[in-house]
Structure formats: structure tokens, C-alpha cells
Amino acid sequence: MIPRRWAQMEPGEYAEVHRWMKDASAQDVSIIREWEDRIAAFIGMPAAAAVNSGRQGFRIVLERLGIGAGDEMIVPAYTLGEMLPFVQSLGVTLVPADIDPDTFNITPQTVARRITAKTKAILALHIFGAPCDIEGILALAEGQGLLVIEDCAHALGATVNGKPAGSFGDAAFFSFEVTKMVNTFGGGIVIARDDAIIEATRAFNTAEPDGYVSLSRKLDGTLVEQGLFRTRLMYLPLYLLASPRWQPLMNRLYRGSQHTQKKRERYSPAQARLGLKKMDTLPERLELRRQRAGLLTSLLKKEIHPQKILEGAESTFYFYVALMPDPAAPIRQKLLLKGIDAGAGNEIMDNCAKQLGYDDCPSVNEIFDRALALPMFDGLSEKACEHVAKTLNRLV
After folding, report:
1. Sheet of strand 159-160, all strands in order from the earlier edge strand to the far edge
2. Which residues pair with 140 in a beta bridge?
3. Could you tell me how far CA 8 lies from the centroid of its own chain?
4. For the chain, how many structural domains are there in total?
């Protein structure tokens, strides 16, 4: 089976990380500052601060920027729905902006239609690693006196006219979860122009308890998942996930398992060591993804429309998502029977306009049903790309 995603994990990494967790000499927290400096230099910003999750980093940014009760924040109508409740818990009113049907990102025009006297900030997501028109959004925000926060969870290594994603707004946050471009089995990092945000993030991370329970569980979970794919035992859970009847239950079980594994722990020296090693190979891995994405795009028939990358931008291709001429869920089921794992519906992203009670975002309604995430990961071969494209072309 060709998986849709595959955690970036080098040979011997499992044993090496476990050795770091047990070795007292590997617990020097100064390695975390080295890791932060490495990311800051890569993004071209003065400083960065590591934290136990990108989501927690986002919360700290909101609090330090003074975004709270009585304020409105414009968010993409197509984003991760699980992120919305914790923002609302701060008293912030979330207002969804519709997306461009070609790029799947918000635009200055869709954002402008949502600005009111209560608007305080814009959340600019670079969805699937493809940069939004961040320069246009920033110009709009500056004219209106609004803050811009970049959601770079998918976008470490993405650029706009040669400038890295994460270096445009007032602040940005990145994620290093298992399937991200740099996988440290959890954690995130905050980039900000305000030193107070950096210091608050570092203080939060330092205040969290030491521990490696979450890291160990994610290492084990990754090995189990990859083992299931290798032995074809992954067919059953994927089949149930692709079935309209069983999908709600499978989603609840999966998300429930994620919540039970969460434990309050600081971002650790072992994760920082792992991140520093993986940054060494990031440029070549990004280039390989871009080559594979280009190959897929060249092979797909004209009725299939891959996500458009804006001129002057470079995507990380965290996901390779294409718009089908018909609903994607039945096509996804047929691909699975051909040995190809793909994603559809809320496995890719959520219709947050609907979740927030808005019915005036037509593009997200259309894209949610027709978007299909095809296999894209480090190590995806040309042969696999050709097989995926050929199979999908026959089905459409």
C-alpha cells in the first residue's frame, strides 16, 4: 500500500532518541536555545522560542498581543476546527473568511469583507504549506491597524518572493508534530517581533514539568502505524475510516486517543537535538517533495485541479491536495481498494465557516466535498507517483 503520509524518521532514530532520554549528559537545556537560534536564523528573524505544541504557542501569542474578550479575529473558513474552541475560550469572536477556490487560502479580498470595528487580528494560514497572499493581507492589515498572526504549522521552508513564511506578520507559530516537515514527535515554536512574546513563551516552557511520556508514546505510535502499513494490516482501519457509516466512530476513536496521550511536559532537549539533525536535511527533502509534486501535476488529467501555488511562492507540499470534478469521498474509497491511501473531507481540513455558524462562504463548501489529499511524504518514489496518477485518472 502507498500511504498518504509517512513520518520522517531516520534509520536508528528510535534507539537514538531513547538513549538521549536516559542519558543525563543529554539533558543540557542549552541545546534548546541552540535549536531556537537555528529556526530563527532559518526564518530570518531575531529570535524564536520553543514550546510543547504549536497550539500552545498560538495561545501565548494571542494573550501577549492582547487579543481577548470583545475582540474579533478573522480566521480561514478552511482550517483545523479543533483549534477554534480554545481561541473562543479567551473570549475572542471568530469570523471566517472564505477561501480562493484555486489556492484554498484566504485572500485580501475575502478578509476585507469581514473587517468590522471590532476586528483586532487576522490569522493567515499557509494551507498545506502553500503560502497565502501574505503581502497583500499585510498591506490590508497595516491600512486598518490590524495585527497579523501567521499559522505556519504546514509551512516550515515555504517562501514568498524568497522571503520565508513566518517572517511577515507580528508573530508566527510552527508545529513539529509527527507528520510535519521537521518531526520532533511533538512541540512547536513561536516567532515574534515583540521580545515580550518570546520571553513569555520561554517562561511557559520552563514552567512545564520535565518528562518524556508524550515523546515516548509518539515514538511508539509511529512505529506501530508504519508497521501496520508494511504488513497491510492498515487496510481495515483505513477501510472503516473511508466508510460513511463508520467514519464518525473512527474519527472519535482517533481523536480520543490523541487527547488521552497528551501530558503537560516542556519541550525537551532530546526533541531539540532531533530537530537540529533534521534541519540539516530539510532543504534537500523540500526539493524532493517539490519534484514529486511537479511530477504528479504533470501526469494528472485536466479535469483534476491541484492546489495552485501563487507566483513567486514556494510550497512545502506538506499535503498534495487536488480538487476533483465530483465528490472526493467515493474516489478515495476506490483508491483504497487499489492500494492507495488518500484523504477526503475532515481528514484534510474542516469547514470552519459551517462550524462557526456562517453560510456565506461558498468556496469552502465546494472545496470541502471535492478536495482529495494524495500521497506526499519524504521518500515517495517516482514510480509511486506514476501509479497514483494513472490510477486516479482512470477513476475520474
Report:
1. 163-164, 159-160, 313-314
2. none
3. 14
4. 1
CA–CA separation, 81 vs 99, rounded Å?
Answer: 15
307: domain CATH number is 3.40.640.10
Is residue 260 predicted with pLDDT exceeding 60?
A: no
Among 139, 166, 137, which residue's Cα sits nearest to residue 61? 166
Which grid cell is 82?
A: 479543533
E strand map for the chain: 48-51, 72-76, 78-79, 93-97, 119-125, 147-151, 159-160, 163-164, 171-175, 188-192, 305-306, 313-314, 320-323, 343-344, 350-351, 371-374
Helix (H) or strand (E) holding 37: helix 30-43
Q: What angle do CA 239, 243, 247 make, to 5 degrees?
A: 100
What per-residue confidence (pLDDT) applies to 249? Answer: 76
Question: 73 near 87, Cβ under 8 Å?
Answer: yes
Quote the CA–CA distance of 112 and 97 in Å, as a whole number: 9
- As given in the structure block, the three cell numbers for residue 337 are 481498494
Fill in the DSSP letter of residue 304. S
Q: Do 4 and 374 touch, CB atoms closer than 8 A?
A: yes
Integer-rounded Cα radius of gyration of the chain: 20
- Give the DSSP H or E segment for 353: helix 352-355
Contact call for residues 317 and 289 (beta carbons, < 8 A): yes
Cell numbers given for 98: 472564505
Q: What is the pLDDT of residue 253?
A: 67
Range of the structural domain that residue 338 is part of:
1-396
Provide the phi-psi class of 196: left if phi over 0, else alpha when psi is between -120 and 50, else beta.
Answer: alpha
Q: What does the pLDDT look like over 140-181, one tens digit per residue? A: 999 999 999 999 999 999 999 999 999 999 999 999 999 999
Predicted local distance difference test score (pLDDT) of residue 388: 98
> What is the arithmetic mean of pLDDT over 99-125?
98
CA distances from residue 203 to 27, 57, 186, 198, 269 in whole angstroms, order as listed:
18, 12, 19, 9, 16
Q: Residue 262: what pLDDT?
A: 55
